[in-house]
Amino acid sequence: MKSKRYYAIDILRVLLAFGVVLCHFWSPESETGLNSIILAWRHNAASAFFLLSFFLIGTRFLTNDQVYLKKRLKRLLIPFIAWGMIAWLIYAATHLSEKSVSELFMALFWQMLTGHGDAINPPLWFLAVLIWLTGIYSLLFKVLKKHQAVTVICILAAACLILQAAGINAQLFGSLPFETKYPLGRTVEMIPYATSGILLAAASGKHKVTVPVVVTSIACLVCYLLFPEFLVFKGFGYSGIMKLAASASLILIALYFDSFSIPDRWKSFIRMISAHTLGIYCMHYDLGYLISKPNLIGNSFLLCIVIYIACYLTAMIMAKVPQLKQLVD
What we know:
Blueprint: H1 7-25, H2 34-56, H3 58-62, H4 66-94, H5 101-114, H6 125-143, H7 146-165, H8 168-174, H9 178-204, H10 211-226, H11 242-258, H12 264-273, H13 277-292, H14 300-319
């Protein structure tokens, strides 16, 4: 089964990937005006990316395409392990005099398990949770009938939102060590996004996005921008309902624009600029650290642009080497 190409979604992927870079390297002088909008965007980038990931493979769950889902897990595991190992080697080389051998290997253990080992490459928590939930959801759709599996993941999503609202998620994982509290706490926060992605995929296969839906989605985004803390619960960065609704709204708006035809030359351009977002995500933290360390670029927003371009060019070069292509695409 060949997946449909969503060009507006591709553009959204680029903007979200840049939002993730902003999360780690942008330090605005003020949080008002345009900066407040950019801040809201960056705070929602990873969670919207997560929902989008499950939307794009939602039909694979619904059709119980276990062959594809197993390949998907392998496609995620290879860059997760490789980039984690690369980051750890850099970490070990730069901390050899400060850390004991046991501390260094313990950091490697947590990095390989949770993607969050002693701040080696913390953004890899995203891939870790993506792998865990892809495996769990694949198993549910394998052992249950489709309607049963959909019911279960909806119940899971509702239960996770209740845990967040009651503060139980924050209490349960908040006191754990750095290596585990964020990946585990964010797993609970990401389950509603994963479920929403699959439900959106199911709905988009049957219905087109209409103008009233787009208007409602835009209104939802405006509410999120004006009241970013509304219905946000104590947690690990991605709790609550507003971010979830805003993430779904972004995808609905993109789907609406995908219903319009675009010239082939634009399609080629969009395919080019949206390539390698996996590699950009995996390498931006370490490469960004190396670029920012000399402190040559005073404007942090410009620094983020430079980091993104450097990551894109690096990924583009790596993609030309067959053995490295799996790490960036």
